[in-house]
């Protein structure tokens, strides 16, 4: 086999691998889902009236959940809710265009939106967070909490974290 043929085969395999990895990360693992509306607002909310709901999730990681929607009465959804300090939305794939992590982060920093805890430890070390704008726009994502950050960087989690479920 000549060197040029070998190089061409190697280059073709590299391109195929690159395209496959890109596809899997951006499209392959995500599915559009229809979550329970009560699971998108703090404490299940009192009969949430959500509109324009779009959500994505993936089985490959609990951090891949994102949702965008509107709330008819935003003030009613946060009664008794716990504010969430340090909320930082993770980016969503470009095709899920209703969720712009940079805009949400900026709005949270400037006080144009408020972050609320929807559910603590939705999975071990992962909280569900909602950014809520006064006009009723809302965005939900999953974020590592302190226990999750310690568990995934190898630090002993200690007694303050809930027990971790055993995987089969």
TrEMBL record:
Identification of the protein by name: Histidine kinase
Organism domain of life: Bacteria
Organism per entry: Profundibacterium mesophilum KAUST100406-0324
UniProt xrefs under InterPro entries: DUF6446
Record lineage: Bacteria, Pseudomonadati, Pseudomonadota, Alphaproteobacteria, Rhodobacterales
Name of one Pfam family that matches: DUF6446
